[in-house]
Amino acid sequence: MEERLLILHNDEINTFDHVIHSLQEVCLHDKVQAEQCAILTHLKGYCEIKRGVLTELEELQEQLTTKALNVTID
């Protein structure tokens, strides 16, 4: 199966704390990893937050979307 990327996009709505907590809860990132993703997303406009097969990433995308995060699969 082809490996895909789950990408978090910057928005002007969510706080750093909300993004960090969501990444820890849904993607099982540790605190440092979640903080780095949040900062990169803020600075670059996006960050690759997870690699995996499409079905796995679709589930994570759905969970993050319910937390009002803007995520896509590439």
From TrEMBL:
Residues passing through the membrane, by range: none
Pfam families in alphabetical order: ClpS
Domain Adaptor protein ClpS core, first and last residues per copy: 6-68
Biological processes, Gene Ontology terms: protein catabolic process
Recorded superkingdom: Bacteria
Protein name (database record): Adaptor protein ClpS core domain-containing protein
